[in-house]
Amino acid sequence: MKTLLYNCGEVAHLSTGDDEFPLSGNRMLDRGSLIFPPGMGILIEFGKIQKISPMQELVAEFAPWYPTEDEKSGTRVIDVGGKSVVPGFVDSHTHLVWSGDRSNELAMRISGKSYKEIAKIGGGIMKTVNSTRSAPKKQLVESGLRRLNSALKNGTTSMEAKSGYGLDLDSEVKLLEAISVIDRSSPCDVRATWLGAHDFPKEMNREEYVQHLISEQLPIISELSLAKWVDVFCEDGWFTNEQTEEIVTASSSFGLDSRLHVDEFVDSDGLQLASELGSVSADHVACSNEDSRISAAESGTVQTFLPGTPYVLGKGLDLPIKKCIEEDWPFSFATDFNPNCPITSLPMIGSLATHRMGIDPIAALAAVTRNPASTMFQDGDDIRGVIAEGRIADLNILWSSSADSWCQTPGTSPVNYTLKNGDIVNSNNVY
User: Fold this and answer.
1) Sequence spans of domains, the chain
2) Domain 2-88+386-427, CATH 2.40.50.100 — does that match?
3) How many CA atoms lie within 13 A of 153 on its CB side?
4) CATH number of 89-376, picked from 3.30.930.10, 3.40.50.20, 3.20.20.140, 3.30.70.120
5) What is the pLDDT along the chain (431 residues), one digit of tens a residue?
6) DSSP for 6-34, written as a single string
7) What pTM does this model have?
8) Which of 89, 251, 265, 355 has the smallest count of CB within 10 Å of its CB?
9) Of 150, 154, 155, 213, whose CA–CA distance to 182 is shortest?
10) Are residues 343 and 305 in contact, defined by beta-carbon separation less than 8 angstroms?
11) Number of C-alpha atoms within 13 angstroms, CB side, residue 120?
């Protein structure tokens, strides 16, 4: 069955240049090369976009009987009603699966306690670890699916999901297996990252735990093919640069690429290290120095900013996004969904980027579609994050005729319909 999207408003295809690589610099601002004007049609078959042309040309070729009938001769026509079409959103940094509740930490943060101080008094990551270790896998799957469904309602069609709230072999395997079940149970693509190096469990000293990760967790996780990437919380007070390099180097010998937490609270040259290690992505990067950002751009490590995190921590949103555009440094946005930052909506992140940081809406759109997709779908994977002939038909039909609207409704989904592999998987009928 062919599907013809008819009467499209603006189509933000974002496919200029080599669409296997991220957009950067002024190319993110060149609307003429990134957006088709209203009046286009999109033909979909076998889960991929087959043709993009003026709508009357497609109707004449594939549905000459339309509008007399909506479906005939193996072609279904969907009248988009002049609404804008944008790529499905790609969330490249989430902590989707965990158990427990840390809502009480908000009051602590308001009273002035830092992230590190809350961790020292029994909150933070280890509180979630204690809850997650005792949670049955079925419970983790069910809660993960609820969260993923919330993301889908907001237009997310692909997501990265980390372990990291187990910190022992059995619990980390349980988390990664839960992510695998979620991936198979949802229309969304969910790709797993092993984050055993999220914190240090109390039952081992730090060096013992690093060796446990390398000698016990890593071989089993590799053998079971449970993760695509390795991640390390490379931050002052957690894993050092040296420990991070040791874990990433060992993981690479098992075929795992890396995407790393770095430079969230202080500049520890974590972004520089990620660049040297060839990480596909370095995330947070709020405090990274300029030389590290240059190195990342040169090495192909995409900087991934997580503005939801400083937002919920009560910090300023003074991230160097405009500088990245000025200097032609590729970057992405992601939600960092986690127990402290329960944001599943990439349009909400887009709202922070545009309304609070002054980023052009189409540049911000590239940062939640094409750019993160370039870090998640590589080595023969079908390309996501763009609207182009031959690419996967992961699409959002917005309520508005303008692509700019994707990030202008914080608290409400801007998405009317979501298509995954050409099939409608989400319908929001109330705006």
Assistant:
1) 2-88+386-427, 89-376
2) no
3) 15
4) 3.20.20.140
5) 899 999 999 999 999 999 999 999 999 999 999 999 999 999 999 999 999 999 999 999 999 999 887 677 789 999 999 999 999 999 999 999 999 998 988 898 888 888 888 888 888 888 999 999 999 999 999 999 999 999 999 999 999 999 999 999 999 999 999 999 999 999 999 999 999 999 999 999 999 999 999 999 999 999 999 999 999 999 999 999 999 999 999 999 999 999 999 999 999 999 999 999 999 999 999 999 999 999 999 999 999 999 999 999 889 999 999 999 999 999 999 999 999 999 999 999 999 999 999 999 999 999 999 999 999 997 777 899 999 999 999 999 999 999 999 999 998 999 999 999 999 999 998 66
6) ES---EE----S-TTS---GGGGT-HHHH
7) 0.96
8) 355
9) 150
10) no
11) 6
Structure tokens at 116: 């590190």
